[in-house]
Amino acid sequence: MTLPIPISLTCPCCHTKFESLDVMISSTYGRSTDLRPIAGGSDPLYMIIHTCPSCGYTGYHYTGYHDAFKRKRLDPALREHIREQITPLIKDFSVTPKLPYEFVAPERQYEFAAWIAQWKGDSLQSIGDLYLRAAWCCNDSKDPRKERFYRLKALEYFERAMELKEISVSDTGGYTYLIGELHRRVGEIGAANVWFDRVVEATNGDPTQQWLVDLAIQQKTHPKQFIGRD
């Protein structure tokens, strides 16, 4: 079950006031093998990200994430980036009259948020997570070309985060597996198997992460789309 709630936001970039939807309650009933939660109802993926209709400033406004709309004013250099690189693009999108809160290209919302996160100097991991969510949107809309593009962007940031040891020890096993699965899903089987083989070492014998080891073996030998399903 997903319970959306209307919210009013003020853009910290151009100060436009606008309406959006957020999530009060949501539930899941499993995950896909690229670790996407499967929503029990409307997918919160499309409700936890918000875009200013005037300038295109985009980010989360949700208790489980960094609140991008909490700040009153943005750094001037960041505002300039948004006005030069995102605002011209936002003019190409319009709001669907019957669905006043729905952005017509949700994958672009996550891409815009990833650009902003990069300009702000946010973690490589968080930028990769945004691109992965853009890929999930494209999977829903059945656009494999864009989906592959965003998965490759997520891989770029996740692998750099691993190289720079940015990811916490407790999360290393999960991201090691995820990198392998993303390589598999874009057709790079050799690279996928290299990362799957690293999961045992990355989980360091932690019994609570044995499921990642088992999942890596499965995806290397008999891959599936969903965890725990035939």
Polypeptide structure, described:
With 230 residues, the protein is of the alpha+beta class. Helix content is 47%, strand content 13%. It contains 9 helices and 6 strands; from the N terminus they run E-E-E-E-E-E-H-H-H-H-H-H-H-H-H. Strands 1-2 form a two-stranded antiparallel ribbon. Helix 4 (124-140) packs antiparallel against helix 5. It is globular, with a radius of gyration of 18 Å. It starts with a strand and ends in a 9-residue tail after the last helix. The relative contact order is 0.11. The model is unreliable at 95-100 (pLDDT under 50).
Write a compact overview of the structure shown:
The protein is α+β, with helices and mostly antiparallel strands and 230 residues long. The protein is built from nine helices and six strands; from the N terminus they run E-E-E-E-E-E-H-H-H-H-H-H-H-H-H.
How do the strands of the widest beta sheet line up side by side?
1-2
Range of helix content = 40-55%
Kindly, what is the distance between the CA atoms of the first and last residues, rounded to a whole number of angstroms? 24 Å
| Low-confidence runs of at least 5 consecutive residues | 95-100
How many extended strands?
6
Number of helices: 9
Q: How would you classify the helix and strand content by structural class?
A: alpha+beta
